[in-house]
Design a protein that fits this description.
two-stranded antiparallel ribbon; globular; mainly alpha; 2% strand
Length: 176
């Protein structure tokens, strides 16, 4: 018998590792893709107000998850419901009309992302020596959600800014 990671190396153990642990995101993506027609109908009926309502509930659950009080942990609903929020967050950032210039929105997005990266690194540096393992906020934390929204905003409004300012240095970088 071959031993790998203190477990007998069997086809079943390999498939569990391959399907459940290494490629967990594939099942999450399948769930999100299957939900797109439902979300599309929801958005058509309730417009941006419905998306904002969903995001408020989702953000509340993300805060609970970040604090360690995730109410649906035993149901494993986070693989479907939790990641679905990122899809709607991207939709909201893409379609929300802000009364700020694209350049300012780009800079705000980069700043938000950098602040969240600092928070993540601070958590790793301060808690990892105490716990003896790398301790970071998971994918379903409010810090990660805000960080991804900031990064998405930065790139989304960077492209808008570059496309409207053809003579700028940024457009030359964007054109590459």
């Amino acid at each position: 018998k071959m031993i790998w990671l203190a477990e007998p190396w069997t086809f079943h153990n390999y498939m569990v590792l391959f399907i459940k642990e290494e490629y967990w995101y594939v099942w999450m993506l399948i769930g999100v893709y299957l939900a797109i027609p439902i979300i599309n109908t929801f958005i058509q009926k309730y417009k941006m107000k419905g998306v904002e309502y969903f995001l408020i509930v989702w953000i509340f659950i993300m805060i609970l998850n970040t604090l360690g009080y995730y109410p649906f942990y035993q149901l494993k609903i986070e693989y479907f419901g939790g990641y679905l929020g990122f899809l709607l967050l991207g939709y909201w950032v893409s379609n929300k009309k802000f009364n700020i210039s694209d350049k300012k929105l780009m800079l705000i997005g980069f700043l938000i992302c950098l602040i969240c990266i600092f928070i993540q690194v601070n958590r790793i540096v301060t808690l990892s020596p105490i716990t003896g393992k790398i301790t970071y906020y998971g994918y379903l934390s409010i810090v990660t959600a805000i960080e991804s929204a900031g990064l998405y905003m930065a790139f989304r409004y960077f492209t808008s800014y570059c496309e409207s300012n053809i003579e700028s240095f940024s457009n030359k970088i964007y054109s590459l």
